[in-house]
Specification:
Order of helices and strands: HHHHHHHHHH
Number of domains: 2
CATH architecture of the largest domain: Orthogonal Bundle
Distance between the termini: 20 Å
Pfam family, one: TetR_N
Mean pLDDT: 87
Radius of gyration: 20 Å
Helix content: 55-70%
Protein name: TetR family transcriptional regulator
CATH topology of the largest domain: Tetracycline Repressor, domain 2
GO molecular function: DNA-binding transcription factor activity; transcription cis-regulatory region binding
Number of helices: 10
Keywords: DNA-binding, Transcription, Transcription regulation
InterPro entries: ArpA-like, Homeodomain-like_sf, HTH-type_TetR-like_transc_reg, HTH_TetR, Tet_transcr_reg_TetR-rel_C_sf
Low-confidence stretches: 215-232
Largest sheet: none
Amino acid sequence: MTKQERAARTRQALIRSAAAVFEQHGYAQARLAQISFGAGVSTGALHFHFDNKAAVAQAVVAEASRRLRELSAAVRRGTDNALQALVDTSHALLERLRDDPVSRAGFRLSCDGDEAAVPDLRLEWHQRVRELLDEAAATGALAEGVSREDTAAATVAVTAGFEALGRNDPAWLAPPMLTGFWNLLLPRIAAAETVAHVDPSGARAAEPALRAPGPALARPARGAVEPAARVN
């Protein structure tokens, strides 16, 4: 393994460890020593990648953002029905929040008002919801007079609410919760000829996207040498 490959793997290990520490202790109480310990590296190795705790939090949010974009794109490739893609993506997102610590921590950091954590993943999610609704409207899948902005706001509010409630009770992230929401909403927003062709429980078109996401191996600057990992 080259030094650059080792550095990239260490960075991803630190992001995963930070996600677990932030989730367990919260941003304010998290300590860099806990993060480096969880990644199995020295604090020197951590500081090679990140200047401070805010930079670590930023990296967690950025990784969660990347995973959200990849998830959304994978779902969209699985169906030519934009409204079904919206339903499927919402189910995939909640499943990811239930099973992926980095995504959970990223949403929590970006949504709890910490200035160090940008972008706001809820705003990113709102943008994607609105894009899919615009696509659905362009193909005549939405009922006449439906407000895309109101529909997007309701969808984001419900999914964000499930995310917040799911922090203490994972049952809120279970598929039946979101299916119930879509059972209520779809008959009110979908055109009559469309609603029968949209599965509120999710068509599972994005099954491969629901697997545990792999890391994006960000490489350090050319010539940089990472400090040696801690040996226990």
